[in-house]
Amino acid sequence: MNDLLVANSVSKNFGDFKALNQVSIAVPKGSIFGLLGPNGAGKTTLIRIINQITMPDSGAVLLDGQPLKGEHVRDIGYLPEERGLYKSMKVGEQCLYLAQLKGLSKTEAKTRLKYWFDKLEIGDWWNKKIQELSKGQAQKIQFIVTVLHQPKLLIFDEPFSGFDPINANLIKDEILQLRDEGATVIFSTHRMESVEELCDHIALIHKSNKVLDGKLNDIKRQFKTNTFEVGLESLDKEKVFSEIQDKFEVLPATFRNLNDDIKLNIKLGEHASPNDLLSFLTSKAEVHHFVEVIPSASDIFIQTVKNNQ
Amino acid sequence: MNHLPLIIKREYLTKVKNKSFIVMTFVSPLIMIALFAVVAYLSQLNKDKERTISVLDETGYLKGVFESTEHTTYTVLNGLNLEDAIALVKEKEDYGLLHIGDANSLEDVSKHVKFYSEESPSLSVISGLEGKIEKRLEQMKLEKDGVSLAQIEASKTKIEIEQESFDGEKSSKIDNVVKLAFGGAAGYLLFMFIIIYGNMIMRSVIEEKTSRIIEVIISSVKPIQLMMGKIIGTSLAGVTQFAIWVILGGVLMFIVSAIFGIDLTEVQTPQQEMMNQAMEANGAQVMAENLIAAINNLPLANLIVAFLFFFIGGYLLYSSLYAAIGAAVDNETDTQQFMLPILMPLMLAVYVGVFTVIEDPHGTVSTVFSFIPLTSPVVMLMRIPFGVPLWQQGLSLLILIATFILAVWFAAKIYRVGILMYGKKPTYKELFKWLKY
Questions:
Q1: Which pTM value belongs to this model?
Q2: What CATH architecture does domain B50-155 belong to?
């Protein structure tokens, strides 16, 4: 049993609108699972189903091998994209209330809150009202409330929005630390660079269907086109260029480098190996730059969505 | 997990600790009492005003009619003509001059009565004068036709119908007044409670939506728990506020009347006036006895039990609808179109209560409306003092409870979907669709 959360062909309709169509995902224990998709694809609906806010029309969700039920709210921490706090309530009171709703006792909640408030250096906010805090400050409170009851599964929907880079980093490190301590994280975002940084697994939902999922590295391998980015220096540029063009499929490339005269993306055929290309290039010119082009999460996202249009 | 007590506690505490709530709680009775005091003071001022009215009677028919009282002094002028009399009254700064012009016959006098004054005189002064003159002229006409004053007096008859039910229970007019007062107070209290605290529930649901905390909360608790917690918590805050109002109002009333020596009971409501009329009919002694008897006659135990059940049932029914409205919209201005279907039956209930229950508490209209769930709490509460068969109360309560369960189901559906819907204001058609999600 290596998957903490499994969704089996979950479907959900809102009237005539199909929000989710037979979507299945499996989130491995201890992973950071990126749930991606364009706006309105159905990510939030799926997340709400996992949180038992919405009930699926068909299909089942299993947490630790058990069908979801009421008690599971203790095992899940959810930071929704549409989030907020009671504006006129004091920070401390509010955190205690929300922690108690998650099943913590008052004293337990107090101890843990103190730990987190010290850790994030916000101890003096306890008696402030939420409306006195800035948006980023309120987000910090929200983050603490989400993780306070030490859930097995953490769901973050756009956790970095509203944070400055320093605080975003702080939160990112906290997420990684929680993962290292054994938590499983579902992470939904449109910021592909953080997907790249954090996620081990991803699933892509598009127009209510899951169109892609797996380990991020496997997917990248799937998507790579055997293309190499090359920077060459030669006295006779024209000649070298035409010789390469005769043998390989060549595209212009843009990357920063000091003094390369020729910058190219060279697509290898099915059978050619990178070594063949390299030895061919070294025989023609001086090689300064030779890198395999690995598709970014963003490329994969855009390409998949376009292909499924 | 049952979070209901926790939610109730939070809702209650945030309401009670809210600044505007505290201000409302302590300032409104002050304002109310101040208003009462001002009205009482003003009406007293009016009554205390002394006025002098001069009378110029050229016919002599009205001798002895105008006897001065505490507030009005009549000066009878003799041997002056009209112009001189007016000049004199003007100079004396009297309230006005009543002139009864020279008439050829008794029948003609009515055409020659006139009142001269600086400003237009008050209605009560004029009608008082008219009454006095009419009475005297009628007597004189009757005497002229040979009917003596003694005969007139002897012909006056007063009827006081004694009421007794088939079971031998005696009652009097005052009974009905007391019943009306009790029923009306209960119905009106419920009406006020629904309007004030229903709105508060609605606002608090909207607040949760606009502050976007709702999704965080309902990932921990079931929407129906949140809704019920809200309704109960807000109601408890409401009961607290009401209790403070009653106590504070009572104390302030006492203090104000003690300080200013104003008898606040003199500020009369129409109902009190009815009571006063009944009082005049009997003697004060009989009156007091009847009043006690009337209160004793009330089915008090039934009244209290029914009040609790219908009050709670009616209030919960309406407040779940308010909660549903709050969930369906994004801000308070959008609530208008959904409020109407709630307010209509409520107003209808009060009107039916006021107009038909008084007229005929057991008539078809009153009976039917005391069964229709949205009007039944108010109408039934007004009817019960007049004695409603227990099976009717039971049936009505049963219908009310069934409707309440249906309404909670309906509200919970709307609530569950609505709290997560942002953006455009939903139409009724969309609300209907939400029920199927």
A1: 0.74
A2: 3-Layer(aba) Sandwich (3.40)
